Amino acid sequence: MQCGVGQLSGGCQKTMGLHCILILCLFSGWIVGYKQGDNVTLYVNKVGPYHNPQETYHYYTLPVCRPEKVHHKSLSLGEVLDGDRMAESLYLIRFRENVEKKTLCQLTLSEKQVDQLREAIEELYYFEFVLDDIPIWGFVGYIEESGFLPHSHKVGLWTHLDFNIEYNGNSVIFANVSVKDVKPVPLEEWVGAGVGGVGLGGGSLTVTHTYSVRWFDSPLPHARRAERLRDYSFFPKTLEIHWLSIINSLVLVVLLLGFVIIILMRVLKNDFARYNVEEESGCDDVDQGDNGWKIIHTDVFRFPPYKSLLCAVLGVGAQFLTLATGIIVMALLGMFNVHRHGAINSAAIVLYALTSCVSGYVSCSFYTQINGQHWVWNIILTSSLFSAPLFLTWSVVNSIHWWSGSTQALPATTVLLLLGAWVLVGFPLTVIGGIVGKNRAGSFQAPCRTRNISRQIPTQPWYKHTAVHMAIGGFLPFSAISVELYYIFATVWGREHYTLYGILLCVFAILLSVGACISVALTYFLLSGEDYRWWWRSVLSTGSTGLFIFVYSIFYYRNRSSMSGLVQSTEFFGYSLLTALVFSLMLGSVSFWASLAFIRYIYRSLKMD
After folding, report:
1. Residue 520: which of 541, 548, 490, 495 has the closest Cα?
2. Would you say 133 and 3 are in contact if contact means Cβ atoms under 8 Å apart?
3. Which residues form a coiled coil (predicted)?
4. Angle at 157 between CA 153 and CA 160, to 5 degrees
5. Would you call 284 helix, strand, or coil by DSSP?
6. pLDDT for res 29
7. Residue 519: which of 424, 607, 588 has the closest Cα?
8. Are 396 and 570 in contact (CB under 8 A)?
9. Are 83 and 407 spatial neighbours (Cβ–Cβ below 8 Å)?
10. Which residue has the higher pLDDT, 191 or 481?
11. To bridge 130 with a disulfide, which of 43, 176, 390, 529 should be the other Cys (CB 3.0-4.6 Å)?
12. Residue-level pLDDT at 145
């Protein structure tokens, strides 16, 4: 069984090819049907240190029982990206047929192989098998530290596994493995002596691997078997219900937004009344005897420097907003089942390629509106603003994985597939979106005319400097998502299955709302000091949330996780930097458009000739 109904998938792959794989593997509505005595294939997948979720190696890199010729399972793109490398095993499991202590194989281990196993056990290596799309986890061996004087250090290898499989009707519901009442084979330092009744001599150790299979009837229907896996706790459970924390954050955010909106509207109402009364009184020069944001109306729409880079930031930010919304909506619709390995990874790659047209359209359209001339270079910059850092980070991380032999290192075929997706889909869609945006771009809607000579900006107090605005504008949105951020990190950098997508949607909406309101408030304070350089300031003020997220990732690594080692650390910090960049682009885009809409509103409301 691959991903369809019973033995259907093998023939289906021959007759339908890619269409079958996409339909059967991406959606979870297919019920696997077995008859008593049918073979239920058990795949071995990967092993790795318990505390380093992204440091994984193929199961057969350890000296374990393996077939003469290893047959690998065809995997989806998401599974490959997730580090899965499933291969057929020697375990013979038949549907609803119990097996008691059946011999799997007998191995003669060299001293080097024993040392390899001992090192793996001391690093708390766990293994992952897959039975009917159900992951099965267990530890490779047993380690015990006891006493101080004398000190005891015991290392043992599990050579017998008990498979406990639950079924309902003709389908498998759940499976796990246990070593209860099993005695491990000691792997202490040995020199020419017997160990635990296991054959030893001539610099070699002989062990016999066995297994048992027990079937149990389950009342849970196949459609609800994901609940059984979600309730199982081989790995520590950290994602508990956190409604109180979410409600607390929601109340604080509502109070914050209400405070900003009410205060800002009252101040604006007074400004409108004062400025419009002065205009009606016949003041010939609004610059005389006045201060504030009105007197810079001839400069506030002066186009900023580095227009192409600004537009690229806005375009890529809009793309990630679309991508994040699409992922959350798909999750709410139940399209990501816990039994579907890497489904979110596959969806993210497909959506990233398809939404490239959004970045091209937004970037080139606005670039044309603000009188940009080099629209071709603008499209190239937009397409490479995120893809270039992504490729650089991936190259470093993948090289380290390849050097260490980890399954997280992508095969050459997968690299070519991803490169082809960007070259043949992502980049062309960016170009098409850019051309459409350039042709459909209108004129920049500015309520005020801009003078040829810019106005001198007065000296600003320290609390209106860019660094202060970035600190305020980044901290407040970060505080709104800090609670949920822990659960997201525990999912991405742990082994949890995130299921609270409704809460995630609320937190995402709160994040965008807080970012927009804070940006509007900071922009008003900037303009009230007669500083019209709001274009880049609006992007940087709320976009600095990414810096806070990266600082939090350092805190999470040191204080909330047990990750260590070069492989895991490189991947964690490399992709944490990319995550911070994504949040900076998204929130920078939101804050800019909010500030632009606010500025157009207040200057359109003034009575000016």
Report:
1. 541
2. yes
3. none
4. 145
5. coil
6. 42
7. 588
8. yes
9. yes
10. 481
11. 43
12. 74
Distance CA 494, CA 121 (A): 20
| Pairing of the two strands 57-58 and 42-49 | antiparallel
The region that residue 503 occupies, defined by phi over 0 for left and psi between -120 and 50 for alpha, beta otherwise, is alpha
For the cut 70, the answer to whether the pLDDT of residue 3 exceeds it is: no
Structure-model confidence comparison of residues 293 and 47, the more confident one: 47
The token pair at 257 is 């937004």
User: Measured between alpha carbons, how far is 270 from 113 in angstroms, rounded to an integer?
Assistant: 80
Strand partners, 77: none
Residue 199: Cβ within 10 Å count: 13
Question: Which residue matches tokens 């964690």?
Answer: 572
Task: Tell me whether strands 160-168 and 204-217 are parallel, antiparallel or unpaired.
Answer: parallel
How many residues are given for the chain? 609
The per-residue pLDDT for 12 is: 40
DSSP for 469-491 reads HHHHHHHHHHHHHHHHHHHHHHH
What φ, ψ does residue 201 adopt, rounded to 5°? 165, 155
* pLDDT > 90: percent of the chain: 49
Sign of CA dihedral 72, 73, 78, 82: negative
Report d(CA 24, CA 10) in Å as an integer.
12
Most confident segment among 117-121, 263-267, 275-279, 335-339: 117-121
State which amino acid sits at residue 57.
Y
- Asked if 160 contacts 209 with a C-beta cutoff of 8 angstroms, the reply is yes
Q: State how far the Cα of 355 lies from the Cα of 452, in Å rounded to an integer.
A: 39
Q: Which residue has the tokens 């504008």?
A: 473
Other residues' Cβ atoms within 10 Å of the Cβ of residue 580: 21
Cis peptide preceding 150, ω within 30 of 0: yes
Report the distance separating Cα 379 and Cα 433, nearest Å: 9
Statement: residue 261 has pLDDT above 90: no
pLDDT in tens, 310-345: 999 999 999 999 999 999 999 888 787 655 557 888
Task: Evaluate the CA torsion angle 408, 412, 413, 414 in order and state its sign.
Answer: positive
According to DSSP, residue 59 is labeled G
Task: Tell me what the mean pLDDT of segment 156-165 comes to.
Answer: 94
Residue 260's nearest CA partner among 598, 506, 588 is 598
